[in-house]
Design goal:
145 residues, alpha+beta, two-stranded antiparallel sheet, 39% helix
Length: 145
């Protein structure tokens, strides 16, 4: 299997000029830990994570003033994120995610974002194969001669 077989093609993205607070709201409302930062043309510029956004925010308390409202996703993102290609083998994708300690990687073709794949996607595929095998039905790939 390849990355394109499991990747999500509909990707929630952040624009470089999006304020940090708005990006945080987007991630939290979607239950996400990170999102690709892309231009209007779909060109990947970086990856922004909840860690990046949290570091950019001042945790409010009664003695602090309003946090800086002008920081953008481009200011706090990882500018050269780990990426994979649609045709990369899943074993290679899993190794990249683990080696770099990231939960998800943008899938890029020609500099443009075409999807995203996560450790969860790969583990879900493995679990489905295990469940199918445990019930006496071999996955299609395992039955080919």
């Amino acid at each position: 299997m390849q990355a394109q077989d499991l990747m999500s093609r509909t990707v929630v993205t952040v624009r470089p000029h999006m304020p940090v607070g708005a990006a945080a709201v987007l991630l939290m409302s979607r239950g996400m830990t990170s999102a690709p930062v892309v231009t209007a043309e779909g060109v990947l510029r970086g990856m922004v994570s909840e860690v990046d956004l949290l570091r950019a925010q001042t945790v409010p308390d009664a003695l602090t003033t309003t946090p800086d409202c002008c920081a953008t996703a481009a200011d706090v993102m990882t500018p050269e994120p780990v990426t994979v290609r649609p045709t990369d083998d899943l074993a290679d994708v899993a190794a990249v995610l683990l080696d770099h300690g990231v939960r998800a990687a943008p899938v890029v073709e020609g500099g443009r974002l075409v999807g995203i794949i996560s450790r969860h996607d790969i583990l879900n595929c493995i679990a489905r194969q295990q469940t199918t095998t445990a019930h006496g039905v071999r996955p299609a790939a395992a039955t080919a001669s």
